[in-house]
Amino acid sequence: MIYCQRPVKARLVRKVNRFLCEVDIDGETIPAHIPNSGRLTELMTPGRSVIVAPAGSGKRKTRFTLKSVRFNNRLVCIDSTTPNALAEEMAKSQSTPMFRGYTNVKREVAMGRHRFDLALTGHAMAPMIVEVKSVTLAHNRAAMFPDAPTTRGAEHLAALSRHVKEGYRCAIVFVVLRSDADTFRPNMKTDPAFCEALDHARASGVMIAAYRCRVGIRSISPIGQVRIEFN
To answer: N or C: which end of the chain has fewer CB within 10 A?
Structure first.
């Protein structure tokens, strides 16, 4: 999948705030939007090689969007909109066992007071609800989520657990936006409430899967499911 249409090589100058950084392009310091609400602490260090993309013709204060960061000689995608599109592509291609048999895939579906990333239907199949999470943090080849506390994430898990009881198939899919992880584990140190909600969801019948990705300058692709280490 193409996640960066017009890649531009740059160097990170500094992270200004949660959604803004400065990059150096050919000696000029330029502000760039960070499309990720996480902390990105290990990735956003000055001097790193990064990939940015022109923002287009919209009414943006920033001319560029940060797309990926080079870490340990590998690119890590930091665009949190990418996992949803990638999961949709996986579902439509039916290349993943979890999604086989479903012929209709919708994005951003509202159910009650929550909005879920994917809703799938198929002949003689129980309707399926999928929540997708963007994973950028890894340590000692273990991907971890979240890298910042997420009340919304725990609420989504509680809602998925309720929908299982209503007859839906429900899943949470962690898309690891880097290739240097062999396992995935919930980040108990950062957000114990989310981890407890994940344990409850698993016990309630919510399916849990994690996939790592190969990230290039322009494209990203899933390269297999990784083992999950529960707390």
So the answer is: C
- Chain center to CA of 89: 14
Q: How far is CA 80 from CA 124, 207, 217, in A?
A: 33, 21, 16
CA geometry: angle at 228 spanning 216 and 1, to 5°? 25
Sign for the CA dihedral angle at 26, 29, 30, 34 comes to: positive
Q: What are phi and psi of 85, to 5 degrees?
A: -65, -40
In SS3 terms, 34-60 reads as CCCCCCCCCCCCCCCEEEEEECCCCCC
Q: Measured between alpha carbons, how far is 4 from 55 in angstroms, rounded to an integer?
A: 11
* Residue 131 DSSP SS3: strand
Cβ atoms within 10 Å, residue 109: 16
pLDDT of residue 16: 96
Domains defined for the chain, CATH in brackets: 8-74 (2.40.50.580), 82-228 (3.40.1350.60)
Distance CA 30, CA 24 (A): 6
Q: What is the pTM for the complete model shown? A: 0.95
Place of tokens 């204060």: 61
Distance between CA 206 and CA 99 in Å, rounded? 14
In which residue ranges of the chain is pLDDT below 50?
Answer: none
159: left (phi over 0), alpha (psi -120 to 50) or beta: alpha
pLDDT of 58 reads: 64
